[in-house]
Design goal:
By secondary structure, the protein is of the alpha/beta class. It has a single domain, classed as Rossmann fold (3-Layer(aba) Sandwich), CATH 3.40.50. The chain has 8 helices and 8 strands, in the order βαβαβαβααβαβββαα.
């Protein structure tokens, strides 16, 4: 009996303060481009690289993310980083997911090119590349040559370019894949600033999230 191919799970982490159409459209396009079986949005409970003051409570950001996802059948919202104390280190999240799901799922960790260029500042960052594939989203002002330099100089000198030019392969077999997506010039920082100034945030994020922000007087 032939063995089944591993299922593919995308992991899209972030502060999501609040989640907006830029996040949602990116997730949808990555699901289609890589034929992912599932996608998890994972709000960070205590982001390691951000000052805790001023960040909306985890439970609030979790609820907004759930409202944003709605009834999309391939997308879920995970509270995994809110179920453990301390800072939300990606390495700990990935180890927990791998432990819970076992080897039957391939993991695809989604992040921006700007973020992966800073990966040497992450906890146990070299171990990440043996746990999952990376899906790296293009960002204006950042080049793929910078990515290759970071991977080979900071992570592992044995990274090899993929034959089709779409990314690089780690000695573990895990890949770092470049992925172009629709660039929507929306940011959570901009949305929070608009709310504070009393301006409209309509059409920047789902109406359910906009209504939640207004009802709960967030970001004022």
């Amino acid at each position: 009996m032939p063995s089944q191919s591993p299922k593919r799970l995308g992991l899209f982490g972030g502060t999501f303060n609040p989640i907006h159409y830029g996040h949602l459209r990116t997730g949808e396009e990555v699901v289609e481009a890589l034929s992912l079986d599932r996608l998890w949005f994972i709000p960070a409970a205590v982001p390691p690289h951000k000052a805790p003051q001023g960040i909306t409570p985890f439970e609030v950001r979790l609820e907004m993310t759930r409202l944003a996802v709605g009834d999309n059948p391939r997308v879920e919202v995970s509270d995994i980083e809110g179920r453990r104390p301390g800072k939300s280190y990606s390495i700990e999240t990935l180890r927990r997911i791998r432990q819970e799901l076992g080897p039957t799922w391939e993991l695809y960790f989604i992040l921006g090119l700007d973020a992966i260029l800073e990966i040497p500042t992450w906890k146990d960052f070299r171990d990440l590349f043996s746990l999952c594939h990376f899906v790296v989203l293009d960002r204006p002002g950042y080049g793929r040559r910078q990515l290759e330099e970071v991977l080979r100089e900071e992570v592992d000198p044995h990274f090899q370019p993929l034959a089709d030019g779409t990314g690089f392969q780690h000695p573990s077999g895990c890949q770092v894949l470049m992925q172009a997506t629709t660039l929507l010039d929306i940011s959570a920082t901009m949305i929070r600033a608009l709310v504070r100034s009393g301006r409209s945030i309509r059409y920047l994020l789902p109406d359910a999230v906009r209504g939640y922000i207004i009802k709960n007087k967030l970001y004022l």
